[in-house]
Specification:
The chain is α+β, with helices and mostly antiparallel strands. The protein is 24% helix and 24% strand. The chain contains 3 helices and 4 strands, in the order E-H-E-H-E-H-E. Helix 1 packs antiparallel against helix 3.
C-alpha cells in the first residue's frame, strides 16, 4: 500500500476529439506525467441517438456529440491539475467550448499495486 498523504487525485479527462490524443500525450510527457490509462468510450447521447430509435430525432439537439471519445485516467498530485487543464486547452481547445471535453478529479484514499520505477525494493 502506498501512502497518499500528498493529496493524490485521480484525474479523469474525457477527450471528445480523439484525433488530438497524441498531441495531448506528448504534452503530458513534457509535464513529467509518467503514465495514464486510456479507454475508448462513448457518451450517452451517442448511444441514445444512434442505437435507440425512439431518440434518433434528438440527434440535432445534442451539440458536441461524437461517435467516440477517449477517457484518460491519470493518478497525480493536486498541484498538477492546473497544468493538465492548461495542457488540454493548448492541445484540444478551451474546456468552455462544447465538444472539446471534460476534466474532473476525485480524491484517492489508498493506492495498492503501484511501484515507483526508482524503488529497488
Amino acid at each position: 500500500m502506498t501512502d497518499t498523504s500528498e493529496k493524490s487525485k485521480l484525474l479523469f479527462v474525457i477527450l471528445n476529439k480523439p484525433e488530438r490524443l497524441q498531441d495531448l500525450m506528448v504534452i503530458f510527457v513534457e509535464l513529467g506525467i509518467k503514465g495514464a490509462t486510456v479507454l475508448d468510450s462513448v457518451g450517452m447521447g451517442q448511444i441514445l441517438t444512434h442505437d435507440v430509435p425512439i431518440f434518433a430525432g434528438l440527434r440535432g439537439l445534442l451539440t458536441g456529440t461524437r461517435p467516440q471519445n477517449k477517457t484518460l485516467m491519470i493518478l497525480l498530485t493536486e498541484e498538477m491539475i492546473p497544468l493538465v487543464v492548461e495542457a488540454f486547452e493548448e492541445a484540444v481547445g478551451p474546456l468552455s467550448e462544447p465538444g472539446n471535453g471534460v476534466i474532473f478529479a476525485v480524491p484517492v484514499e489508498q493506492i495498492c499495486g503501484m511501484h515507483d520505477s526508482d524503488d529497488k525494493s
